[in-house]
Amino acid sequence: MSKLLTVIGATGTQGGSVVSAALTSGNYKIRGVTRDINSDASNALISKGVEMVAADWNDEQSLVEAFELSHLGSYAIYAVTDFWASFAIQDIKNPIELEAKQGINMAEAAAKTASLNHFIWSTIPDNVRISGGKHSVAHFEGKLKVDQYIRDKDLLSKTTFLWVGYYATNIVLPMITPNLLKTSGKYLQLLPVPEDCPITTVGDPRINPGIYALAILSQPELTLPGKIVLAETETRTVRDILNIWAEVSEKPAAYAEISIEHYDNLWPKWGREIGKMLQFWNEAREKSWTSDHPVLTKHDLRVSGLVGMKEVFAGFDWSS
Hints:
Blueprint: E1 3-8, H1 13-25, E2 28-34, H2 40-46, E3 51-54, H3 60-67, E4 68-69, E5 72-73, E6 76-79, H4 83-87, H5 95-111, E7 118-123, H6 127-130, H7 138-151, E8 159-164, E9 166-167, E10 179-181, E11 186-191, E12 198-203, H8 208-218, H9 220-223, E13 227-231, E14 234-237, H10 238-249, E15 253-257, H11 260-266, H12 270-284, E16 295-296, H13 298-301, H14 309-314
Parallel strand pairs: 1-2, 1-6, 2-3, 6-7, 7-8, 8-13, 9-12, 11-15, 13-16
Antiparallel strand pairs: 4-5, 10-11, 12-14
Helix pairs in contact: 1-8, 3-5, 5-7, 11-12
């Protein structure tokens, strides 16, 4: 009988990539966990043979039930939270604490799953420790609270921490994408860092996290207990990324560094959050994705078939 892989957020970006990779491998039964099993995205997965179950990230018991239904308990679980969904809602006062609560609920439910052998937790490096307390990025903080919770529990022995790099698809976000400056005829990208700021990207987040997840599950002798894996395709400077975009889109591009205050004025709230992340990477540079614990890379796991930044950019229609 195939082992059961349960995927949180199966209809989302990361979760969807894991489901897709598992379907391609044919090595797992797949249970997708989502809030709405009646959505079009959920029905599309059901049509491919994925068992879809509903759960609420704020309700630990619903996750316990999703992870170990009576007929078949989860052998492995891929867990991911979504800071941005709550960040976008104005009346949620503390998206950090909400994300931490949801991640801890997932970890608690996983710990109660008797059949569990492997828990993959999608997270990020400790920016506060790396920067000596100088930088704190909100969409990192909640995940780090979950990291610490797991490290203090028996679940650590079954856990792999998967650091997922910057999404190449972020190029279409309003505060990232180059915009036409009509008076110059060029597409201008404005960011609050110098153009040599390095960005480590996972490439296509709709594909590559799943490739890493399957590699992690197939090599527990490398990825357990409590090991860290960096999911990335490449590290490039801001200017290099813009040059790739210009090549793919066939549009003239220019870059300008602005203050984080001006960046946030252009894209309120979002500019400050994205800007803080970029400024951390600019200062930490090669230390941005490091830890006191060893970090495994694509070379250690012999990962192949990754889709890089250039291919992602080429997949968008830049004609307009």
